[in-house]
Automatic annotation (TrEMBL):
InterPro entries: Glutathione_S-Trfase_N, GST_UstS-like_C, Thioredoxin-like_sf. This is Uncharacterized protein. Signal peptide: none annotated. It comes from Pycnoporus cinnabarinus (Cinnabar-red polypore). SUPFAM superfamilies: Thioredoxin-like. It holds the Pfam family GST_C_7. Residues 113-215 form the Glutathione S-transferase UstS-like C-terminal domain.
Length: 215
């Protein structure tokens, strides 16, 4: 069965459930569209060699010109004949899944531009204050092998944000609260006029998956 379903590559960790936001975004779409899929778990330090092996396209370049490989990545054998279709980048994957499997759409007609702006806000503004909190927690969720691979030489561990200074911790959470309050005020505009509680009112869409994946 594994050869006839979509494969989603995800990061192995010490917790019993998926946790990476960008990968959750794609998992939400696969589940919402009821597309059969399986997850392949890989260590963070094995992302690049694994993606090179399956033929995933890079998502950018490093300053020295070397390609950058990141998750999520999917391999879809269902609609591509004898050669599996390999895609990277959350937005690219979302567009592909919508075009290839249009049932239960995630882009209501005429909404793509507004949704693109909404998702850009989530990625570039809403998430940034969370990074000082999320990055130390992310490091703790990785396996010991992967923690050791990314740990600075001579360092014992990466301390949680709370241990790096009370003021820094307070400032980080204040910035997070400000962004959450702003997002809540935007979404409440739909709720206040009775048009629904999600980004598009009553229609679940890609924008909602971008928010929920961070949560």
């Amino acid at each position: 069965m594994s050869r006839s379903v979509i494969t989603l590559y995800d990061i192995n960790s010490t917790v019993a459930q998926p946790w990476a936001p960008n990968i959750w975004r794609i998992r939400f779409i696969l589940n919402y569209k009821r597309l059969p899929h399986r997850t392949v778990w890989i260590e963070l330090d094995q992302v690049e060699p694994t993606l090179r092996m399956v033929g995933a396209p890079p998502v950018g370049q490093k300053p020295d010109g070397r390609p950058v490989y990141t998750l999520p990545v999917i391999v879809d054998p269902l609609r591509s004949g004898s050669t599996p279709f390999v895609l990277s980048n959350a937005c690219t994957i979302a567009e592909y899944l919508e075009a290839t499997y249009p049932a239960r759409p995630i882009f209501p007609e005429g909404s793509r531009a507004m949704q693109a702006l909404f998702v850009h806000y989530i990625q570039e503004i809403f998430v940034k204050p969370l990074l000082p909190i999320l990055i130390p927690l992310t490091h703790q969720r990785l396996s010991e092998r992967t923690q050791a691979h990314f740990r600075p030489r001579g360092a014992i561990s990466t301390p949680p944000l709370a241990a790096t200074g009370g003021l820094q911790h307070e400032q980080a959470w204040a910035a997070v609260k400000e962004q959450f309050n702003f997002l809540a005020s935007i979404l409440d505009k739909n709720n206040s006029d009775g048009s629904g509680v999600v980004a598009m009112g009553r229609d679940v869409s890609y924008a909602d998956f971008a928010v929920c994946s961070v949560l």
